Amino acid sequence: MTVKKVLGECLIKMGKENFAIKTEYDDEEIRLLKQLLSALNIVYREIISEYLPLVETEEVEFVDGRLSADSLSKTILFPISLKRNGEEKRFKVYADSIAAAFSGAAVLEYAYLPENDFTLTDSISHMRLAQGALCDGILSEYYFANKVFDLAQDFDSSYRSKLGLLKYKGKRLIVRQRGWQS
């Protein structure tokens, strides 16, 4: 799915014309697209950091029992597993590194954050979330930021119920309700 398609669906749900497909925008359209794009990036980071992580497997080198987080190719959220010679190894996580009881080569599987925020011309190809659910999350953030709490709550409820229907590794997701909802 493309960012333009997602934002276009958001515009339609807002009762507006889908001007996201145009190539040139007036000042009001630019302002609205920037707000929706900002909300998209917030929702996307929430989804991949809390519910559907992006996972990377990388060969790493522990030196004196430590692996610096900066040495990884992607920005690590949390480690998932550590294997050495096909055998699971225990590890300890620190703010800037991972410690293990060995030195040398290993394979680390970890969840990561993407490096850049989405722009209007990007595609969202690695999402396991339906476009409609993502739109509801975006509109929830947008209306919350603009202090339209009734609509924010409605879209948030819809978003979280659709997100809860997803399964991750065979388990149904448990989605927490927002603190500002009653």
Shape: elongated
- End-to-end Cα distance, whole Å, is 33 Å
**What portion of residues belong to β-strands?**
15-25%
Number of helices: 4
Task: Give a written overview of the molecule.
- This protein is α+β, with helices and mostly antiparallel strands and 182 residues long.
- The protein contains 4 helices and 9 strands; from the N terminus they run H-H-E-E-E-E-E-E-E-H-H-E-E.
- It has helices spanning 3-13, 27-50, 131-145, 149-164, and strands spanning 54-62, 66-68, 75-84, 87-88, 91-93, 97-100, 104-113, 167-168, 171-172.
- Strand 8 and strand 9 form a beta hairpin.
- The two termini are 33 Å apart.
In short:
This protein is an alpha+beta fold and about 180 residues long. It has helices at about 5-15, 25-50, 130-145, 150-165; strands at about 55-60, 65-70, 75-85, 85-90, 90-95, 95-100, 105-115, 165-170, 170. Strands 1-7-3-4 form a 4-stranded antiparallel β-sheet.
